[in-house]
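Record type: monomer structure entry
Structure origin: computed from sequence
Chain ID: A
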Amino acid sequence: MGRGSRENDINDRFTSSLIEEEFRRLTRELRGQRPTRDGDDEMSSSLKNTRKYANTGDIRQKLNNTIVVYDGTPVYCSNNGESSKIELFGLLLDGQNRSTYRKTIEYDDPKLSAQSPPIGYINVTADNAIYASRVPSRRFSIGLTRECLEFRSITGTAVNSPIRNWPYNSALDQTIRGVYKRPHIILDELYKPNSEKAWAQAFTRTLAFGFSKQYGLRLFHKNTAIAYYNPKDQKFHPIKNGMLLVDNILVKQGIKSYAPQR
């Protein structure tokens, strides 16, 4: 199958609502953010705890066994339903499987975020990225729970949760913090034009590179391919002609062109 046919197949996935809604939202997300710290403003703006609780049972229902953000640190909450105090545990473990961060706070501590933490691409390994999104659940919790997350491959296929020891996971911690490698570093490390090994790696919560022998190197927004790399002119091109928003993304992220390392 030629590149033109492949592009037509992928173009069919685009709809007017995707162009008008998803890409407009994407440009808002990228505006003013540094490529290696995706979502700093989102993290800092959500720190004020303005949520009200009816009683200690309500505190437990909304916070127990959830992941939230405390003073910029992703934490796991524990509350027994009998006290207004909340135990916080960081998502990183030491050599003895103990959380490297632990703190006890009152439920109304102003440093405790009242919003669900930002989520998106998780670089689960050095060559595999999975897109995580929040889905409706029957639990009336504030933060992230095992039940409220779904995971998909870079092309949109449903996959199992990569977080085996919930909630302790360094990759999830980095996603919430917005810590990613710069796009050119990812390409230098992983891109080999003649390779047969598929890989995926994100550089923001919503943007990732994906490579396969069939389609070559592509840029994905969430689970949609938005640009492909042409080795002949060493440039990324929007998959759908006239996609100025995609061009703007390529320029803003500094990946309009890329010369592979020799």
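Annotation 1: The CA atoms of residues 74 and 202 lie 19 Å apart.
Annotation 2: The longest helix spans residues 16-30.
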